[in-house]
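Changelog-adjacent note: as of this version, every example in the card shows the full chain rather than a window. The one below runs 881 residues end to end.
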Amino acid sequence: MSAPTRRRRWLTTCAITATAALVALPAGAASGRNNTPFGARALTRLAAERTQSVGSAAPKVTAEDDDDGNEADEIAEGADQYAEARTSPGIVAPGAYGAAWTDLSNLPSTGGSWRNITDLPYNSDDARYRDIDSNSSGGSGNVTGRMAAMAADDHGYVYAGSAGGGVWRSRSGGGHWQPISDRLSSQSTGALALDGAGRLWLGTGEATTNADAYLGSGVYVLSDPHHGTFSAHSRVGGDELESTTIHELRFGGGKVWAATSEGVWSHSTKTLKGAWKLEFAPNPEYLPGGSLASDPSAAYKNIANDIAIDPKDPGRVVLAVGWRSGDDYNGFYAKDSSGTWTRITSGLGDLPADPDDVGNVTFARSADGSRYYAVDQSPEQLNTNPDSGLEGIYVSKSGSPTGPWTKIADYQGLAADGSALTTSGYMPGVQAWYNQFLAVDPANAEHIYAGLEEVYESKDGGGTWSTVGPYWNFSFPCWSIDPAKQTGDCSQTTHSDQHGVAIGSYHGRSFVYVGNDGGVYKRPVDGSQDASGHATDWTSLNDGTIDTLQYYSVGVGKDLTYGGVSVTGGLQDNGQSVLRSNDTVMGSDFGGDGGDTLTDPANGCNLAEEYVYLAIQVTQNCAVNDGSWITDPTKATSYNVAPADNATGEARFIAPLAADAKNPATWVAGGRHIWVQTHGYAIRSGDEWKSVYDLGAGRTATAVAASGGKVYAAWCGPCNNQGFARGISVGNADGTGWHDITLPVDGTVPNRYLSGFAIDPKNADHVYLAVNGFSRHWTEGPGAGVGHVFESTDGGTTWKDISGNLPDVPANSAVVTPSGGLAVATDLGVVYRAPGRTQWERVGSLPAVAVLQLKPGPDGSTLYAATHGRGIYTIKMRGRG
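Full-length structure tokens:
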């Protein structure tokens, strides 16, 4: 039987975002201009929609572009919600998160300790959950959150740098992980590298330019990585690299080189004090302090991707510089005879010199110096080719980064070498701007590993390739949904979307370690393959001791089967997790990106699980299924019930969804329209939603809440820096009484992203509002105002700022506790205001990780926090409920 149509998210519309010591910069542009958001989950439909989007792609940015042509002014609506929430209406100055972290650390504490409840294996192939919208049996096995960088030595020590959950160490060749960067104010990893002295270098700030990547606070070094942990005192240089992303760290000539979002910098590896030196920035006027630093396109004008240093002559250096969607400065640079960095315009051989063909680039060299390799993503291909954005993989057989270079792979060839991505519109390199790694076997200059969406291996210098880590196993004859098997007769593969790679040894045996959107995997460097070229020996290292899961949401309900509670949540690219009260392994009942979540407090298996753009699935048995729906569709126990704004693309990437606090069978969802359905978890069709209010063309809901039939809806439109506007609409679930609240322009309620409501359960006219972004102290945007938490006692007509001593940090959601207290989730943890008090306290202690959503447990006194990088935590409020 052929594989069923499988479902996943598509990331090519995602955009750059930020933190410095987690700080936000302008939201980035999507890969295409005015693209319609992609709400379908089927891979084949994603491919078809990508095909349709070609021709609407943004032209490259040029200095002459006006607002109609500047990519930074053409942010695709819906693709960059995460960034917009933190940046609009203006550009956030560096240092905002650092100041907030200091202020938060100085708050009094409520006492109590958070407990991580997702620190156990999370099996994406859990055979219990093989319903219609699950990716179980795909072959990824145990997963965790996105891994951005890897490093490994020859003594069994492995280091994994996560997107938002810090750096982790294994002493046993992978597994049994320990966090080693929790004391840093940035938990976002861009690069990890071991130098010749065995020191571990960390470049903070993830450089994948996707929708939930954070900027960092600089570069840190750990002299004894086998035993030590990173601290603020281990930072290299000054604050020059704060508020940047770091794509790669390279060593040569007594220097460490950093390819960053603000150019290429260097520092002595012997003396760690003193400032970093700016080696090259193609457009320095756009750097902080420059004449164009506040320009909306500043974030894209000095992006450096990698540095290639000639091992035979460390003074010969080639820089790969360029924004993935294209700009006039894109290209390769070297110093001329006068010592000036100049673009290389010829002599590279097959490696492109035209700016249109140079985007995201990764280099790798062989240990013996005989070979240099490179992978190049093309802005031209990204914007015009429906199949792939990959320009190619190349080798310099001279060992010099100046070439000449020869192309050794393209996307058509990789697709034919055992790839799972053979469908027109979704082929190898379709996300090469986001997925890239490259490594050379230290023992064999001809043996290379390349990572795009999949993992590829060549043992003859690129003459032939094998897809040793296919995207998934669904398309192969060996696949079966049989619940007695993980993936039929196929071997385990890795999770898709590759970002980091390292080669190291343990007990004398060499292994390759890969980091991707599902965590860390390893196999022997000279591992085995089947007849199709697929590896037969991948091992997932996501053993539960490493929890970097990136939750957007959390839901809690009573576990009627086993007692206790069932906890679920939506994740970046890891679907929906389900944790039953008797579980020792967490399962996944829903694939792709998981967004918002509704869980019946009285029955934790009554679930509404959101994909993106309001694509909603409902199940009343936790989506428990043995896969028999493939031959008998009536045995499916999950139902797609998306309201119409999903089909039209008029909803945010992670769109708001809520149940009425007094009537859990009444649900409210927000896109352009406010949608209501009254059948609760018995809903079976999207036609059961009723539009009760039209927010208006160009507006999309950012938050919804309801109690006793009264509905609050916040919206933005435009939602980016270009004319950002926000508002609140209030009405009834039956469609009556709807009206827009007149919000004063004096900043009483700031002109920033309105991210969440919390309604007093005793009085629906008493409501709290959480506001994202930073105040006018850090944001130059019009109407940025001050404050992050506001209170209304007249149904939203008037508002009062109750932020008090709350640090100036983005607020994401709020919950009214049974005693009348207020808990607020922020980008740096959770704060609490007791009833009758005006001052805020810090709830427990968490690393510097964003908490996106809070939910109370059925007992009313337990709080659950969805963090975007460290899993789900819970805490007892100890009388403060």
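Structural remarks: Confidence is low (pLDDT under 50) at residues 1-79.
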